[in-house]
Amino acid sequence: MKIIGLTGGIASGKSTASNILKELGIPVIDADLIAREIVAPGKPTLDEIKQIFGEVVVHENGTLNRKYLGEIVFSDKNKLRELNYITHKRIIEEIINKINIYRKTRTYPVIIIDAALLIEMDMKKIVDVVWLVITHESIQLKRLIERDHVSCEDGLKRIKSQMATEEKKKYADVVIDNNQDIMYLKKQIEEQLRKINR
Ligand SMILES: CC(C)(COP(=O)(O)OP(=O)(O)OC[C@H]1O[C@@H](n2cnc3c(N)ncnc32)[C@H](O)[C@@H]1O)[C@@H](O)C(=O)NCCC(=O)NCCS
Ligand SMILES: Nc1ncnc2c1ncn2[C@@H]1O[C@H](COP(=O)(O)OP(=O)(O)OP(=O)(O)O)[C@@H](O)[C@H]1O
Prior knowledge:
By secondary structure, the chain is of the alpha/beta class. The chain has a single domain (2-197), classed as Rossmann fold, CATH 3.40.50.300. The protein is 54% helix and 13% strand. It is built from 9 helices and 5 strands. It has helices at 14-23, 31-37, 44-53, 66-73, 77-105, 137-148, 152-160, 165-169, 182-197, and strands spanning 2-8, 28-30, 110-114, 129-134, 174-177. α1 (14-23) crosses α9 and α3 (44-53) runs antiparallel to α5. The protein starts with a strand and ends with a helix. The site of adenosine-5'-triphosphate has 16 residues, from α1, α6 and α9.
């Protein structure tokens, strides 16, 4: 079973690429989804977050106030580092569990791990190849603002909290250009899958 690590900056188009891959019948492990599951009420990760950031980061119903925590960590590198320290080891653990489940089924020749921070989290070692989705920063920012309704300033803060695309390219086996339309994105994905299956 071949494991493709699909990565790229915020709003570069990973989920869009993942959806194309799912439509082609390829399973996708979504790191963002796992990151949400591990902070559900009652989970130890949420308790640790409360200990570090205070009760102010949870809503009255006990769920994480993601918007508020995001405002804190994406404005302060040290706070982001603390949050990453609490969350990343558990996200990786859960991804490895899911990979092992797929392996045991012996059903899928290829699976995808969709993770924005694949390189930053040093997950390169658990995948066979790294696909990096890239866009020019101006397009990335425009799509981010339109999708999340954030200000230009907040959008830029999030982009800058991640490793620069040029730096990420050093770790990529395949670079997927998402500066054009979705058909162009799909064409590149199909071409790369053909190469893997060859
Ligand atoms: C800070 C949090 C609560 C903000 O939640 P919010 O709902 O506003 O954003 P969401 O989780 O949907 O993330 C959107 C995008 O932000 C970027 N992002 C998320 N976490 C981080 C991070 N730690 N460092 C840099 N960028 C990040 C990613 O591109 C991600 O796809 C949340 O992002 C979080 O818990 N992050 C820590 C866990 C993590 O590292 N997740 C990414 C796993 S690859
Ligand atoms: N080729 C494209 N043409 C036009 N819009 C696009 C294209 N690719 C992606 N988008 C749009 O850009 C936005 C960001 O894409 P997407 O959500 O796939 O990014 P992402 O990398 O998964 O983001 P995140 O890291 O935040 O999870 C979405 O609204 C998506 O519909």
